[in-house]
């Protein structure tokens, strides 16, 4: 048997790497080598001063060994601080920062060199570190956490290349009283590795603090304010889990990359954005990223005149919340098709059912009910399932012009959903919508006001409130609610209905041009929507455009040969003269034909 010529020991390893060495070599190779050697001497000096030694120099990388993890971390802080000071004295494009990874574990020592998985882990850890920063493993953290003034940010567990077990990674930085601040996330690269599995249950979303561009302090305050408003608004959607501000605002600089931030926060979706001020205008760019694959789900630019900061915050924040709610819902609907039907959780059954509901075919509507019913059997107390069933029966009642049995089911399901979650806006809105169809707009307005109070970004509740005002005879008061709905949900699947209601409101205030244009927009979305074309024909006649009215009437009669004015008389206006007014406009076109 060959004689063993190595030993095993417990050691703490620092892997240190120069950032941008190759770039500097391309600019001035002699200067780059001199800069590296100067900084290498600083690193060796710090390591020696704290009881360690450097070994295994290779290119622009250095390894160091310590017997004590605390001394290793102190050495890393020391040489990082000295290198930062040295870099500050040279031009920015000639600076050479270093990053370091520290791990504690069992190593093999042979002829002064160290080997083993724990050495390799240190090398992988430095890939997570920011420039001039330090990443450590959980094994090192357990030794140093209560014995230094350092601050730590947990990035979570990762499967590192060629390492069998997951490794928990933390970023270490000096406390605020020390000469070196906690490591900035701005320069942390996107390190390779597999991320910890997504937990079961509904997805979580995190809103990072929006970045304020420019020197004006009010831009930064407003950017933070809008991000806070979005967190508050998303929490009111109820179906999404929202990471608290105290956690997500730790990542003020998203240079870490959304995948790492999402892993650290346990969030599947990350919302980020930037804001800038130009004279009297504000420009905000917002985006939504799926952290599981790094893909951009949605992005949009918002340009607004800077008039009232608080109303501007409220307007942009509520608009973004409404968009995000639908975009995450859409992404989750698509995700359910990657899961076998029999393995779907309750919340996934809801999302799959919503996907079929959005197709709006008779067959898909039936399939949607199957998914919702299965979700109900699995969890009869799920507010998400109860709300979807309430919506399903409301939709069928609307198609059947107010079927009383379906409306009874809407009320029963919505009230049970409220028992499960009294702060959910959706049951209040569905109760209000059912009362609208029953001809009780005043009672409906009470439910809808509560829904809007809970979730100001709930576009459906605002549209239904507009309908309640319209039925009560206040067309002028209804119009702002319909316009708010357009702003909050410009790509809503049921937007054709909101535009039809808005067209009716314009008819009642006798703004015929607006009524015609709005009805056309509704018909562009749903050419078979009888009410929008009915209103357009009447508005064309009242504005003197008889030939156009005749053409629209011909289309109407072809599409709706069984139409009867009873459809219009069914609309539960409190004052029946409103029904007569709309019918009279339409009859003018019939008489002229």
From TrEMBL:
Signal peptide: none annotated. Pfam families: Guanylate_cyc. InterPro entries: A/G_cyclase (IPR001054), Adenylyl/Guanylyl_Cyclase_3/4 (IPR050697), Nucleotide_cyclase (IPR029787), TPR-like_helical_dom_sf (IPR011990). Residues 12-126 form the Guanylate cyclase domain. This is Adenylate/guanylate cyclase domain-containing protein.
């Amino acid at each position: 048997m060959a004689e063993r010529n190595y030993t095993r020991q417990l050691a703490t390893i620092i892997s240190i790497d120069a950032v941008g060495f190759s770039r500097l070599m391309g600019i001035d190779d002699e200067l780059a080598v001199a800069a590296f050697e100067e900084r290498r001497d600083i690193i060796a000096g710090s390591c020696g001063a704290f009881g360690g030694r450097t070994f295994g120099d290779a290119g622009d990388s250095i390894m160091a060994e310590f017997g004590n993890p605390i001394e290793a971390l102190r050495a890393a802080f020391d040489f990082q601080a000295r290198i930062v000071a040295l870099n500050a004295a040279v031009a920015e494009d000639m600076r050479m920062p270093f990053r370091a990874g520290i791990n504690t574990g069992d190593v093999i020592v042979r002829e002064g060199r160290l080997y083993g998985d724990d050495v390799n882990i240190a090398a992988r850890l430095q890939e997570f570190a920011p420039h001039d920063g330090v990443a450590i493993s959980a094994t090192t953290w357990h030794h140093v956490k209560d014995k230094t003034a350092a601050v730590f940010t947990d990035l979570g567990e990762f499967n590192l290349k060629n390492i069998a077990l997951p490794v928990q990674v933390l970023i270490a930085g000096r406390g605020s009283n020390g000469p070196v601040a906690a490591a900035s996330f701005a320069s942390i690269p996107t390190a390779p590795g597999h991320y910890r599995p997504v937990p079961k249950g509904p997805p979580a979303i995190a809103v990072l603090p929006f970045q304020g561009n420019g020197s004006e302090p009010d831009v930064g305050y407003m950017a933070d304010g809008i991000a806070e408003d979005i967190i508050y608004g998303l929490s009111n959607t109820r179906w999404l889990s929202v990471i608290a501000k105290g956690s997500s605002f730790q990542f003020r600089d998203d240079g870490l990359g959304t995948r790492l931030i999402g892993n650290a926060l346990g969030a599947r979706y990350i919302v980020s954005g930037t804001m800038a001020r130009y004279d009297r205008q504000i420009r905000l760019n917002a985006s939504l990223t799926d952290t599981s694959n790094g893909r951009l789900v949605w992005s949009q630019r918002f340009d607004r005149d800077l008039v009232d900061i608080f109303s501007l915050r409220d307007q942009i924040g509520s608009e973004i919340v409404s968009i995000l709610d639908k975009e995450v819902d859409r992404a989750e609907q698509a995700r359910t098709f990657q899961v076998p039907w029999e393995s779907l959780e309750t919340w996934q059954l809801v999302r799959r059912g919503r996907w079929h509901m959005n197709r709006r075919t008779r067959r898909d509507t039936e399939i949607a009910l199957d998914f919702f019913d299965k979700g109900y059997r699995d969890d009869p107390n799920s507010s998400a399932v109860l709300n979807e069933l309430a919506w399903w029966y409301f939709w069928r009642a609307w198609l059947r012009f107010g079927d009383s049995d379906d409306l009874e089911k809407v009320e029963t399901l919505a009230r049970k959903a409220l028992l499960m979650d009294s702060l959910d806006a959706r049951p209040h809105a569905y109760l209000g919508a059912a009362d609208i169809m029953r001809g009780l707009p005043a009672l409906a307005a009470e439910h809808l006001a509560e829904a809007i109070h809970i979730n100001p970004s709930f576009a459906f509740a605002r549209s239904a409130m507009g309908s309640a005002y319209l039925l009560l005879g206040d067309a002028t008061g209804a119009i702002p609610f319909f316009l708010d709905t357009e702003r909050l949900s410009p790509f809503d699947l049921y937007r054709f209905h909101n535009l039809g209601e808005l067209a009716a409101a314009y008819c009642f205030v006798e703004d015929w041009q607006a009524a015609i244009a709005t009805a056309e927009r509704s018909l562009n979305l749903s050419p078979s929507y009888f009410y929008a074309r009915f209103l357009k024909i009447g508005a064309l006649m009242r504005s003197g455009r008889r030939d156009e009215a005749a053409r629209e009437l011909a289309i109407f009669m072809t599409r709706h040969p069984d139409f009867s004015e009873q459809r219009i008389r069914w609309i539960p206006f409190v004052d029946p003269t409103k029904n007569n007014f709309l019918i009279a406009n339409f009859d003018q076109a019939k008489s002229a034909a």
